[in-house]
Amino acid sequence: MAADKGAFPRIVILTGAGVSAESGLGTFRDKDGLWTKYDLEEVATPQGFARNPALVHDFYNARRANLLGAAPNAAHDALARLQAARPAAVTLVTQNVDDLHERAGAQDVIHMHGELMRARCAACGHVWDAPQVMAPNDPCPACGAPATRPDVVWFGEFPYHMDRIAEALAQADLFVAIGTSGQVYPAAGFVEEAAMSGARTLELNLEPTTARFDEHRSGPASRIVPAWVAELLD
Ligand code: OAD
């Protein structure tokens, strides 16, 4: 759907691990990324959790500790500024389980892969604020079952909020992917979904990941995201 002449575009932004890299949180697939050090089958699948819940909790406890010591960077700040300036026009979707967008001031962030700072009961579905350290037999505060897990989406599980994201993509004039390698579906397919609805597509990343975007800008997120936001707003 094309933007009205002169109207501010409706924008869907998808962020990935690259937006938080300069805050000191590791990415997954870059050199030294998390998936070069850990077996994702063991720590990020329901089967891995069933086999060894303590190992999975250790992995997410360590990531939660890293996150508590991290702070938003200039890219998170710029996206929060854009959203505050144009709340009705901007939909912020993230694959990240960190809360750095929120800590920079963003509202209503759509966490399609869940949130590290939330816990979920695998028995009754109750969700609550995660303690800093979680253990396999922690009881659910609602039903008491010893079935606490991180409220993150693992491989083989359905991402959250897909209806809402599809609706935003169908109405978007501009789709922007920031700091994501485009290796994991369904997020990797958003560029095509948006383009099919007539949106222009833009990638902001250290380097181009694919030729599927109309435009690519290269550089660290802390530099190129504020520059892009300034161009839109100023
Ligand atoms: P990846 O690690 O696959 O990709 C990170 C991307 O960020 C790469 O394309 C890098 O080039 C880019 N990047 C790194 N540093 C950057 C910087 N300073 N500025 C800009 N870009 C930078 O991470 P994701 O694409 O987010 O899912 O991974 C997607 C999903 O795979 C994650 O949500 C996670 C993972 O497995 C689950 O765990 C379910």
Question: How would you describe this protein?
Answer:
It is built from ten helices and nine strands. It is α/β, with parallel strands linked by helices and 234 residues long. A hairpin with a 5-residue loop joins β4 and β5. It starts with 10 loop residues before the first strand and ends with a helix. α6 packs parallel to α10 (221-233) and α8 packs across α9. It has a six-stranded parallel β-sheet with strand order 3-2-1-7-8-9, sandwiched between helices. It has a three-stranded antiparallel β-sheet with strand order 5-4-6, covered by helices on one side. Helix content is 34%, strand content 18%. The radius of gyration is 18 Å and the shape is globular. It has two domains: 1-25 and 72-113 and 159-234, Rossmann fold, CATH 3.40.50; 26-69 and 114-152, SIR2/SIRT2 'Small Domain' (2-Layer Sandwich), CATH 3.30.1600.10. The structure holds 2'-O-acetyl adenosine-5-diphosphoribose.
